[in-house]
Amino acid sequence: MHAWPASEVPALPGQGRDLRIHDTATGGSITLDPGPVARIYVCGITPYDATHIGHAATYNAFDLVQRVWLDTKRQVHYVQNVTDVDDPLLERAERDGVDWAALAEQETELFREDMTALRMLPPRQYIGAVEAIPGIVPLVERLRDLGAAYELEGDTYFSVEADPHFGQVSHLDTAAMRLLSAERGGDPDRPGKKNPLDPMLWSAAREGEPSWDGGSLGRGRPGWHIECVAIALDHLGMGFDVQGGGSDLVFPHHEMGASHAQVLTGEFPMAKAYVHAGMVALHGEKMSKSKGNLVFVSRLRRDGVDPAAIRLALLAHHYRADWEWTDQVLQDAVTRLGHWRAAVSRPDGPSAEALVDEIREALANDLDAPAALAAVDRWTVTQEQQGGTDAGAPGIVSRAVDALLGVAL
Ligand code: 5CA
Ligand code: ZN
Q: How far is the CA of 250 from the centre of ligand 1 (A)?
């Protein structure tokens, strides 16, 4: 698939900082030390509805990861998937009487437009589950040949017991895993499974559903976790720097993916850091496509909201926090954007050198965007109240806010 156009990232004076980030798997902060090309895989959307603020918040977090790395003069190899065939997509298409593939294409295109408007840097590879099928099938066959997968009424399941590291990403107990598995696409109660947690690798063709040639697996379609593993291993290989997504992906998705990859390669872990963003709520409940309590990015844009204000509203919350979207959150961002724009539009101002350092320091410290915003606020207040004589300063602030926070002033 094609991704979306990249906005330019201005170069900044001075030195970028290495990123220290919270890793779910170890439960602590780690300082990443990527090579000259940092590698990141971020789980993409399941395109059955428009991009909501929760999605945007999660992609904002991983956009910051890239910006910190780019600021250290590294290149970034970023891969993202699109789950363009899965149960929720097929169910929505059936409910609305539309073609599932057309629905996926339409919502993916809207996502691209939203990401472009929000100045999210695009992945180098943007890969749909459907186009990944030829790479998925041999991996499932290999898992089966290794004794880590088994057949049940034509479907193929992964055996979690084949992985000695199983549980290392989420550290949940079995009861919690079972509950989450039932909530998030698993089928723990299906009779005949070796372990209730075992996830589907390949689902046999069903009447009225799309299916593809699965070689020795028979016709069918891929399971969800193996999709991301196949795409990540194909383009990034084992031991990449960050696997990212929202906290609702910790279990089962990232746990199962780590297990699949570990059994396939004999290496551990697949990603050096498992990084998870908090959940955005609306009216007290997690924003989710299945509940329908959504604020769409495209809707806000159509209502004339400046995408830079949407982005500032996201940045005002720490990526690991769970938070609530309200009209006030947006209003505050609009106000802040106005102050910042006025401050950088003056011909001179207070020196910006310390500010650039503060933004860098804040982001390198587990992506503390609220601290970065507070630093820009302080410079803005000084500019408003006292002004300054540094002719280059407003330009440097404007470039730093663009390069490090993705906000065009
Ligand atoms: N296609 C899979 C990943 S392979 C998927 O989870 N798709 S999704 O469309 O449901 O979610 C896309 C991303 O947005 C995921 O990282 C998910 O964790 C994140 N996300 C979903 N809802 C929210 C929310 N309310 N707040 C923050 N992030 C969210
Ligand atoms: Zn994924």
A: 11
